[in-house]
């Protein structure tokens, strides 16, 4: 009896007595043969799963009752806030507060006296804009061989893991195995510290190969080190992304861009209250408006010279229409609607070696498929046309803004 009840609960009942659904055939023994119009194959349709059957039994084709909707909504809202507190720490107002980097480079340390090829190993993740900064400066300074890398990818729980992805092009920047030790996750690498480590395992992370410890996980410290730390020993010393004459301007731009744009998009996407979102999105777009106006008459932020400030802005801009505009609710404008900012982004993208650091597919996968609280279905949209390599590679005419050298380039 129990089996019968379970079977009838999972499968729609087949009416046997309705005239429209039967065909009666007379025989000499006057027996009736019933032939239902529904086929056995239709009964076993995989589309009629348990949840669909239950919902039809409960309320037919109508919407779920209000009590169910409010219960699910309350439960999901509580679960969402719990997950967001783990993903994105916030202050009492619901505004995202980025945790400070634990490992910083001390400018007075002995590191600079012992820098040589192979001393350092860089751990990065391709979706991460902070890690992307280090990849670009490493490339522009010609440090690819001096500072090897391992490329982690986000696992199902968002933690950084190491897997090898093979492609047809050996030069493609793709997730890789751990090339410096046998750890399968970045958290295990952090855990190799002599005193142990139980904090956040973030990228980028610079590993001291000789001392077998984390040297730094603050992106700006790393790009400053790459810009000057190897000069005279290895790499391209002629490229200076932070010349002394521009340091004041670079610092001023960073003070504007970091809180309002770099971290501003995250303050929008990770906001846990309407008020926190409204504040963040207003500051983001007022800053983008100001930057677009400034770049109408200046090729780069500090004039004709590409600097670290430009690199820091670029890695947010290249992700804007791909991810932040949609997933982080930065919807007031697309970057494509800012003619100067978009052209500026294309200008930097076309600098030799920069495009090779931009894996657009991995960027989108890292946001849409991993940030479950923001995209529970993990469905990744198609890459916008304006973000495709062919569009980003079109002429931008930004060189006309360089009065001294209209063909100014970064030679690498």
TrEMBL record:
One of its GO terms (molecular function) is glutathione transferase activity. Coiled coil: none annotated. Pfam families: GST_C_2, GST_N_2. CDD domains: GST_C_Omega_like. Residues 243-367 form the GST C-terminal domain. This is GST C-terminal domain-containing protein.
